[in-house]
Amino acid sequence: MKRKVSSLATTLLMLTCMSLSHATIIRYSANLDGPGESPPNASSATGYALITIDDVFDTMRVQATFAGLLGTTTAAHIHCCTSSPSTGTAGVATTVPSFVGFPIGVTSGSYDETLDLLSLSSYNAAFVTANGGAAASAAGALLTGLSSNEAYFNIHTLVFPGGEIRGFLTKVSQGVPEPATLALLGLGIAGIVCQRRKRLTASDSQKRAATNLGLCDGGRHESTC
């Protein structure tokens, strides 16, 4: 029985891992500041951007926070792809003039929006034209740029039209499985254990009943006793 439970638990783990292997969540982050611009500037503003790619739903979640800008915001987007990793400049890859819904006319704020990687509306038309002419090919180019550290997040302001704070997006180290995944796995294993306990309890009851009836005397009815 123990071997059977162990086998079932192992199978469950394998199936869970197989499911997870088909869903890749990749995150890229960047610290945004003035010295990171090209050319660098003396702005004391700071910011942070987190990009989350889901290759099952083909989405890109864009999260950003910023504060202390010297000028009010005019635009924000991802640029791609520079000729060398973590340096240089490139054209705008995502929606122009700015991410839809990004706070404009402020010096601090936050943003959280999910883009469809397979929708032309998520990209700068010029970026699509330069990369195959389709949303899928544009997505491929952007993902390649992100994985190669050739894409950066840029926030533009009235004081710095070319960009007040920016940062190159780098891959975030993969962490532990999502809590929901762990919970489902735990429930599955718990179900196997409970099922085993019920069977053991039923077996014990049969033995007690057999003993009370005197069926276990003399080694008789070994299948029950």
Structure overview:
With 225 residues, the chain is α+β, with helices and mostly antiparallel strands. It folds into 2 domains: 2-14 and 178-219, no CATH class; 24-171, Immunoglobulin-like (Sandwich). The chain has 4 helices and 8 strands, in the order αβββββααβββα. The strands form 2 sheets. The chain has a 5-stranded antiparallel sheet, with no helix packed on it. Strands 4-6-7 form a 3-stranded antiparallel sheet, covered by helices on one side. It is globular.
Topology:
Elements: H1 2-21, E1 25-33, E2 46-54, E3 59-67, E4 73-80, E5 109-116, H2 125-130, H3 135-147, E6 151-157, E7 165-168, E8 170-171, H4 179-212
Antiparallel strand pairs: 1-2, 1-8, 2-3, 3-5, 4-6, 6-7
Helix pairs in contact: 1-4
Mean pLDDT: 81
What is the annotated CATH architecture of the largest domain?
Answer: Sandwich
**Secondary structure: number of strands:** 8
User: Can you tell me the CATH topology of the largest domain?
Assistant: Immunoglobulin-like
> What is the CATH first-level class name of the largest domain?
Mainly Beta
Counted by DSSP, the helix tally is 4
